[in-house]
Amino acid sequence: MKSLLEQIQSRCKHFNGLPHGTERDSKRCNAGVCYYDLMRVQELGGLGCALRMPCTGREPGTVVRGQTVVACEHRAFPSEAEVQAEIDEHERLVQTLKAGKSPCCSADIDTRHVIQEGQHKNHGLRFYSECKRVVFMV
User: Fold this and answer.
1) For residues 25 and 107, is the Cβ–Cβ distance under 8 A?
2) What confidence tens digit (pLDDT) does each residue in 33-45 have?
3) Diameter over CA atoms, the chain
4) Do residues 111 and 99 lie in contact, with contact meaning Cβ atoms separated by under 8 Å?
5) What number of other Cβ atoms are within 10 A of residue 38's Cβ?
6) Closest CA to 55 of 81, 37, 36, 35
7) N or C: which end of the chain has fewer CB within 10 A?
């Protein structure tokens, strides 16, 4: 498995997540490229289409589990400063969560929905107390 540094360095700086659900045929990267069109889903089908993405560090032309990685003219990698900024932000998020705080609003994590007793004790949703986003579920 690649380290966090290797993952960030090899990922296209325009990549903003895999398309899924209702956005799957219209989601665009930060450079404006439609993932659905890039992966040639209409032509090659949807099965294994994410393996054709050059966004996550695979070299165009490489064959991964029977799928050939496509080329993208907008593919660009982050600078050393951008990589360091993302690593610093990741570390800040980890430390904030370890402290039991929300990384987006610095509020305490609300654990009122966590099961307090029985077989499933300590399982359940954790919410941020101010923005009400789900932190994680155990």
Assistant:
1) no
2) 998 889 888 888 8
3) 56
4) no
5) 20
6) 35
7) N
Mean pLDDT of the region 13-27: 82
> Does this model's pTM top 0.85?
no
Record the tokens describing residue 36, joined without a space. 């659905």
* Residue 4 or 120, more confident: 4
What token pair was written down for 97?
Answer: 């969560």
How many C-beta neighbours within 10 Å does residue 83 have?
18
* CA distance to 75, 107, 110, 122, 135, per residue, from 131 (Å): 35, 8, 11, 22, 10
Give the residue ranges of DSSP H helices in 1-134: 4-10, 35-38, 41-44, 80-98
Between the two ends of the chain, the Cα-to-Cα distance in Å is 24
Is the distance from CB of 85 to CB of 91 less than 8 angstroms? no
Of 57, 49, 59, 135, give the one whose Cα is nearest residue 99. Answer: 135
Measured CA to CA, the distance from residue 65 to residue 117 in angstroms comes to 46
